[in-house]
Amino acid sequence: MSTTVTARKTASGGRAGDSIFSGLSLGAGVLILAVLAAVALFLFLQALPTFQAPAEDVSGGAGFWSYIWPMVIGTVVAAVIALVIATPIGVLVALYISHYAPARIAKPVGYVIDLLAAIPSVIYGAWGTTVLASSMVPFYAWLSGNLGFIPFFAGPPSQTGKTMLTAGVVLAIMILPIITAMSRELFVQTPKLHEEAALALGATRWEMIRMTVLPFARPGIVSAVMLALGRALGETMAVALVLSSGPLTTSLVQSGNQTIAAEIALNFPEAYGLRLSELIAAGLILFVITLVVNMIARAIVARYKEFSGAN
Prior knowledge:
Residues 72-297 form the ABC transmembrane type-1 domain. By secondary structure, the chain is mainly alpha-helical.
């Protein structure tokens, strides 16, 4: 009898605990949505004067969209350059750590990669503007001299090295730990039975990775890349220090271009009135871009999840 009573009390307490935990989880989810909605509403209301102002009153004298469009392009270009450089390197480093390197090497390399994520962005910016930019000048001169027929490398190269390509390289180094760390955790979670079965059928190590590890981790790699893209889109100080802002140009080896985040960081302290509203409107555009990127990433992950190899 006492055992039955105790079991009922335990079950009742468990149900109460489930209800409390469910309520807390629901509250946390609602809180996130409420904060996101509040941020979006604040940005929209503060940016409204810019959308209503005459075109000649906005910076540049041609309207808000003419003002913001070059920075949108610069933001996307810098992020794409960073992804093109960091994604293959990050995935390959993660594969090396998880499937090739011995433990005495894999652990130190993993620690160093994780340490890169802890370095403040202003440090990356200071290193980029003092060391990397000047080191890239001879390379830019070579690109302009030998590949100048390509619009991306056309024109006289920058003598300071503070170009969009330099900013992309710095961003690539900053997002590399995100892609590497997340990919590494996914690779080591690949079912060992899948790997052993592929090897038992005569597959080489690379064939085993291609047939089992990469399909299993593909949705997670997409998520890692999209998370890194969000970091690259919103980076401020590193880009502000490395990039010599100027008019929009297709050349990656010339000074010029600007990103939304760097524009806000450089001009916000002295901004007031309509100028302040312009910068907040720029922040709203960046908010929308980031939101759209994440929605696309979730759609891609959901579409290919059932073919991930985990089933």
